[in-house]
Write a structure and sequence with these properties.
Elements (H helix, E strand, L loop, with lengths): L3 E13 L9 E17 L4 E6 L3 E6 L10 H13 L7 E7 L9 H17 L5 H16 L6 H8 L4 E6 L4 E6 L4 E7 L9 H17 L12 H5 L3 H25 L3 H17 L6 H12 L3 E6 L7 E7 L3 H16 L4 E4 L2
Parallel strand pairs: 3-5
Antiparallel strand pairs: 1-2, 2-5, 2-6, 3-4, 6-7, 8-10, 8-11, 9-10
Helix pairs in contact: 1-3, 2-3, 2-4, 3-4, 5-7, 7-8, 9-10
Length: 351
């Protein structure tokens, strides 16, 4: 236990498995090089003063946390949830610096939550393992902020390692570490269209999917498989599309894991492109600019497949490319996208 602690955590990109985690389905994220770094200094009072690089400076008193304060909520949520778990916190000066872009769908919020929890764990010598940190970070968003997200982001930020994907069963929370073969590479391009999990449409999609599950007689769509497509087709049109996406996306994740294990980049690319088509047509969470970015990526000869990644309504795309060609392909795709849309696309991976 000391007076200063430093920690960091990565952003993540989800290779495949979108809008499945809140239905206890399968996901396949991997971490990205961009990270959020937190420095925590102990104070003698009960004030938490937060300075976030490029965003601003805010403060509050422990025990007086109140949501609705924008980016400060992720810090307030951490101290509030730890206090609820019986942990006595001192006042703190918190310095935040991050290279994880906001609104790109690469989980800047989870990177902040996990890095802050790691720093507080070190400062107070807490017995919180990485899984417990992921659970607290997830509760920050669902219980304190009130955003009904799944558990993938926080698990990836807390347990992810470079060079591997995490195959996560979000029902059992079992994790299988899948090495990313050297025969392929990953590119991530931010479309420049910001997204937000707190947006109304994200909540609408979630509600529609659970209404589909209710009509199918199950609590979660994880309990429906492709053999029951006839039942899904009998649902009202919109609900049928939402259910079809979740059910087929779970199957695509399982197939993608097999493709990674077989070093089959072409098959993985086809699955990723099929995932985007489903997100665009069945879950309806894409945008015209993001669709354009995906099409341009898929047209590049070094790209096996591409798709929207993250909750949707903007954000980044992920592409599987030939080994050694990810950086050049991503830059060329971003340039063509800018010419077609007038938007600036940022290449996040490779950095």
């Amino acid at each position: 236990m000391g007076d200063v602690a430093v920690a960091d955590a990565p952003g993540r990109v989800n290779l495949i498995g979108e809008h499945t985690d809140y239905h206890h389905g399968y996901v396949l994220p991997t971490i990205i090089p961009q990270r959020t770094r937190v420095v925590v200094h102990r104070r003698a009072d009960r004030i938490v003063q937060v300075c976030s690089d490029g965003i601003g400076r805010r403060s509050y008193e422990l025990g007086a946390e109140c949501s609705g304060q924008g980016w400060l909520d992720y810090v307030q949520g951490v101290t509030s949830l730890l206090a609820q778990r019986g942990i006595a916190l001192p006042g703190m000066d918190i310095e935040i610096a991050s290279t994880v872009p906001l609104g790109a769908g690469v989980s800047s919020s989870a990177a902040l939550e996990v890095s802050l929890l790691r720093a507080v764990r070190s400062l107070l010598d807490l017995e919180l393992d990485d899984r417990a940190i992921a659970a607290v970070a997830h509760a920050v968003e669902t219980d304190f902020i009130g955003v009904p997200i799944g558990v993938m982001d926080q698990i990836a930020a807390s347990l992810g390692r470079e060079g591997e994907a995490l195959f996560i069963d979000t029902r059992t929370l079992e994790i299988d570490r899948i090495p990313i073969p050297t025969a392929m590479a990953i590119a991530v391009i931010d479309s420049g269209v910001p997204h937000s999990h707190a947006s109304g449409q994200y909540r609408v999609r979630r509600e529609e999917s659970f209404e589909a599950a209710r009509l199918l007689g199950v609590e979660r769509l994880r309990d429906i498989d492709a053999a029951q497509m006839t039942r899904i087709a009998a649902l009202p049109c919109v609900l049928a599309k939402r259910a079809r996406h979740v059910v087929t996306e779970n199957e695509r994740v399982l197939a993608a894991v097999a493709a990674l294990r077989d070093s089959d980049a072409a098959r993985l690319g086809r699955l990723i492109s099929a995932s985007h088509a489903s997100l665009r047509d069945d879950y309806e969470v894409s945008t015209p600019d993001v669709d354009m970015l995906v099409r341009l990526a898929e047209q590049h000869p070094a790209v096996y497949g591409a798709r929207l990644t993250g909750g949707g309504f903007g954000g980044a795309i992920v592409a599987v490319t030939r080994a050694g060609l990810a950086a050049d392909a991503a830059r060329q795709v971003a340039s063509r996208y800018a010419a077609a849309t007038g938007r600036h696309a940022s290449v996040l991976v490779p950095p």
